[in-house]
Q: What sequence folds into this?
């Protein structure tokens, strides 16, 4: 498995990411994430629409919370034209609690704790932590499973660039 040393930082300290550095134009890799305690979501099961994958280390942290709320607000205008997902290692009950408490209705949660297949395939799994976490990243995938926008946020404690991700998502949605 490919490893990318110092690919991102956390408060200035370099972190190694496991997996490839994807780029716009690449085919979106498959994955299998939990969307509840029994349900598994794969890339194929999300097909048919433009998709936003908002990757966060943990919903229970301030920047991840802000990121999820901002995307949720912006996605309301796109209604059923797109599908949006928050991907983290948070367990499904914690994800559901957060979204219920914060009124997140325009994004579905995906938990990558099962086998880290999203983290490894999309190059966002952080190596060497006491507990597995994903780095902060954004992926926009068109209905044909081609990646149209990627941002690996260089400093995990920083927010992503919302505008270009949303512009790419709107362009894919038609």
A:
């Amino acid at each position: 498995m490919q490893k990318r040393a110092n690919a991102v930082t956390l408060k200035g300290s370099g972190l190694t990411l496991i997996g490839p550095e994807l780029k716009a134009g690449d085919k979106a890799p498959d994955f299998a994430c939990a969307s509840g305690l029994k349900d598994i979501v794969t890339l194929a099961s999300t097909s048919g629409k433009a998709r936003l994958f908002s990757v966060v280390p943990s919903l229970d942290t301030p920047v991840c919370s802000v990121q999820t709320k901002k995307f949720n607000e912006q996605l309301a205008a796109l209604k059923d034209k797109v599908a949006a997902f928050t991907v983290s290692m948070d367990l499904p009950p914690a994800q559901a609690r957060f979204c219920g408490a914060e009124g997140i209705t325009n994004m579905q949660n995906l938990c990558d704790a099962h086998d880290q297949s999203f983290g490894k395939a999309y190059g966002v799994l952080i190596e060497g932590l006491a507990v597995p976490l994903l780095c902060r990243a954004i992926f926009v995938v068109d209905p044909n499973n081609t990646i149209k926008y990627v941002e690996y946020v260089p400093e995990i404690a920083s927010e992503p660039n919302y505008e270009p991700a949303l512009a790419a998502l709107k362009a894919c949605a038609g």
Q: What stands out?
A: Strands lie at 3-10, 13-18, 32-34, 40-42, 50-55, 82-88, 108-111, 125-126, 137-141, 147-152.
